[in-house]
Known about the structure:
This protein is mainly β.
Amino acid sequence: QVQLEDSGGGLVQAGDSLRLSCAASGRSFSNLVMAWFRQAPGKEREFVASITWSGGSTLYADFVEGRFSISRDNAKNTVYLQMNSLKPEDTAIYLCAGDRTSSLDYSFVRARRRESYHYWGQGTQVTVSS
Length: 130
């Protein structure tokens, strides 16, 4: 089993930056594809970014537009989401997620689907004021 703990959210102004962190405990972190999703009130949970086991491949939602960067530190069992140039429409609860898929089953299609992920953090609130 894996436990994920998200942190780093807060209230910021448009144009500001935040760095989210997700610390994992339990099962080997380096065996997990990790991702960030977000959910705004009244909306579906949506994919933000993902990163493969050693960080060799990253994937982003179109709305990121080069503003966010996902990274991981396997020695610290932590995945990060650096968010720059934040917009009010980025306001949401951000959740990290882990997928124990193998390299044989991995695909970009799989990485974008919330149903692919086995482990979830509790979420951290990001609020961007205009």
